[in-house]
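Z., the sequence and structure:
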Amino acid sequence: MGEAIAERVRAIGGTDLAEVTVAGPGFVNLRFSDAFWQRRLLEIAKAEKAWGRGEAKTSPKLCVEYISANPTGPLHFAMGGTRPSVIR
């Protein structure tokens, strides 16, 4: 299952992904390219204080989930509790 997901992510990742690997059952690791992070940093710098702000959504449905990421390690998700949050 992990390899099938990884193959699909590789196909749509374009130049934003430097590497997609499967690490054990249910884990897919994504490593974003340097160019991806450079573009993000430029967007943040240009937006200044407005960065991170957006228009309110008008959708009648709202699903709020909290994912607690380890700030000292890579963000990953398993085939369990956090998976739906990341995919949405």
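Residues 34-47 form the longest helix (14 residues). DSSP finds three helices and two strands in the chain.

Let me know what you think.
H.
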